[in-house]
Amino acid sequence: MDPDPTPTAERNPLRLSVLGPLRAWYQDRELHLGPPKQQSVLAMLLAQADHPVPVHQIVDALWGDDPPSRAINVVHRHVGALRRLLEPELTRRSEARVLVRAAGGYRLDLRDAELDLLRFREHRDAGLKAAEDDRQDAAAFHLVKALSLWHGPVAAGLAHEVRSHTVFAGIDAEYFQAAQAAAEAALATGRTGTVLPLLRPAANGDPLNEALQACFIRVLAAEGRTAQAVEHYRRVRSQLIEELGVDPGPELRAAQAQVLRGTAPAAQGTRSRAKASAAPPGDVTRVPGPAQLPARLPVFTGRLAEIELLDSFLPTDTSPSVGIGAIGGAPGVGKTTLALHWAHRTAHRFPDGQLYINLRGYDPEGDPLTPSAAVRCFLESLGVPDERIPSLLDGQIALYRSLLARRRCLILLDNARDANQVRPLLPGNPACLTLITSRQRLTGLAVSSGARLLDLDVLTLPEALECLAGRLGTARVEREREAATAMAEHCGRLPLALAIVCARAEIRPAAPLAEIAAELEEGSDGLHAFSISGASDPVTDTRSVFSWSYRALSERAAEAFRRLWLVPSHEVSLEAAASMTGLPVRVMRRVMSELHRASLCTPERSGLYNTHSMLRLFSREASRAEDSRQVVEEARRRLHDHYLHTAHHASTAINTHREQPVLPLAAPGTQAISFTGSAEAAEWLHHEMPNLQAIVTHHPDHGAGAQIWRLAAVLELFLDRSGRRQEQIETQRAALLAAQRVGDIAGQAWMHRSLGFALGRSEPDDEAEEHLHTALEMFSEIGDLPEEALARRYLAFLANVRKAHGDALVHYKAATALYERVGHTVGTASVANEVGWTRILLGDFEGAVRDCRHAIALAQAAGNRNVEAASWDSLGVAHHRLGDSAASLRALDRALAAYRRLNDVYLTADTLVHIGDVHATESKEDARAAWSEALDILGAIGHPESDLIRERLAVLDSSSPHEC
Fold first, then answer.
1. Over the stretch 211-251, which tens digit does the pLDDT of each residue have?
2. Vertex 593, ends 590 and 594: CA angle to 5°?
3. What burial letters (b/e) apply to 14-44, b meaning 16+ CB within 10 Å?
């Protein structure tokens, strides 16, 4: 990434960046900064640019309390190397001008244009001065400029021991101060849209900074993101309590109150949207235009003719665009790279935003994304809450096209399978442009929809050489042009293969290109197992390049690479990768770094890595060629154990009142993650859910039926509380089949019960009851009394849904007897609470009060906060039905406080609904506040019960003052 937009001719030849990864350029060529210790020396000098840095301070930063005897000599040697790097024209007799001796150490003499840290401070200071003078527009301009220079933590990538030095901590503090000031200036001017994406990483980086978090919450609210603001406050509050043992201070509480009252400042252009947020269910809130394009590659060469053709797809005043362009070509030929480069280049032509989605048309391990799933993603990006999205595809498409009818948006559909997958995603407005990438030539789309086609071939030889020069340096390529030409030809001039070869060459800067070309020549026919009938298409040629890079890996890294295809998605966590190989996490981190240096995976964020689909295919083929079936299945077992045991830990942290399936010991070498709080556990489940569901639904034939049904059982309550009914049903059906395949009676019983409950939630028909009765019989057969009792409770729930409350009480009586036989106090307490709720449904409110108080006493004796909270909630509803509002609110407030401590967002919202019900007869404003907060919470998680709350608010607003 080039950190400076100044034209090359006006720049100084030397440019450096420390706000994020440490980088340097000389005459627009990026420099290799040497070994980690040398980079640490440079970082210390850059962090204190234009000031002397004593040698002893550098020694302390590099080695702490245990420096080697020759530490000072090592520092001097690194300084000498840095001088030669930063001033290549320096001779033995000339005097250094950039890195000079000063006061017992060294100093970097830099002008502001050469270092991003100095430019940051210049804009930061100008912004703070403007804010002092009440010139808020100027303040916002300079502070946004300052924040935009940051690309991650200062000196990111250096060892933690170095980055923990107070010098770097001080710069991080400057960043957080600037972020807060930028937010305040943006709020003052109403221009919060620009600062929001810059403020988010600062808020995530300093979660206990209450002033900064308060500003971030206000900015979210100003941009119309009320639900996110409410949820962010809850997360920060929980973290303050868990880590510091304190409640939020007055500034953070005031920001939350402003959001809930709707008095937070509104951004320019969002005031009208704020009114729309209270619109009836048929309306859709318009949010700031999406900007979803992934980052483009920092080095892009050639493709001038293709870019010119893409430019011709754009609409003009005299000729409207056909609106659709499709880039076709072989895998690895650079379709996505070209599309992203061109999309970023023309994004300004589409002021209403840019939509992007990976359709996964050629995912080696997963299914292509369905049109319905893709349209839903786009509708959510355009501001449509989940509960307002039509259930049928035709309705979703109609809404999607209606939203784009008056907008100018760029839509990038990446990795499409075929024309049928794409057609539902095409807008009807010719002012929008849809760009598609696919391995197929989408001729049918050209015929039916007038799409313009671009067939992308491999690079020409001059373009391939230009690509090598951009990565390896022009001088290096020109010196050995013949060898560079051989390298390009061995790569088939395929961009993906060239990138991998360059990655190898970059870490061997002293190696002649002829040596690298010779290695490629040796490997060109050495991977017979990966050949395709001796063909010479780009895919086949690329295999020899992959093989060359793969064979250079250490044994551990090669084994890790051969495991990557086992992960259901393109993304793998460090712990999952460690589990597949059986290595400790600390070792695995070094292994993944080696794969990254070889361009065989890409770090996404802390502890997560992504792999290109072609490399996943190569990983699978390498594994099939080199690994025995037993080795692969053992790796798969450890991977599934990682997901199963980590999901079990997460579900246990969230649902302390529920029995979890007993797990067998994980296979040796499995790395399971533990969680300190429910919020962290819920975040992991949410992020890993695609992998977890894929294991259950896509891997039923790998002899892991016991793992699969247990994983589905662990996910049951999380999916239920999230309102993901259809996903829950599909997951439980697949798991039931897996348990049946391996003849696991306990697993079949669990899955019949889970599936019956899920069906009872969405369509309480005979199938739901059949599954529950089957579960009841199986649990009785194997003598599992607590699980038999839960099956009884699910049958009681189904009876209540059908308004057969007498039948429900019969099932609850049987469940109580089963729990009492095994001394299961928490189960007995749960049933007492559910009996109390059933009495509310029957109109026996006094009986409900007795049962709920009994449930509370049992839960308190067992120390179970979940059941106690549920019982306080039921008690509050019973008191409300008896007409005792004061007693009702006391009970409901206790339930609400407990659920917030537990971070149970769904039941927090449920209790807020009950609180609003109590207030509705006495205080319209208090009722609206409670219901609105509940709506924000459920809307943020896309829960279908949001509609019920919206109906309450509509009735409240339509009633006259004397009716409340």
1. 889 899 989 888 878 878 888 888 888 887 776 666 777 77
2. 90
3. bbbbbbbebbbbbeeebbebeeebbbbbbbb
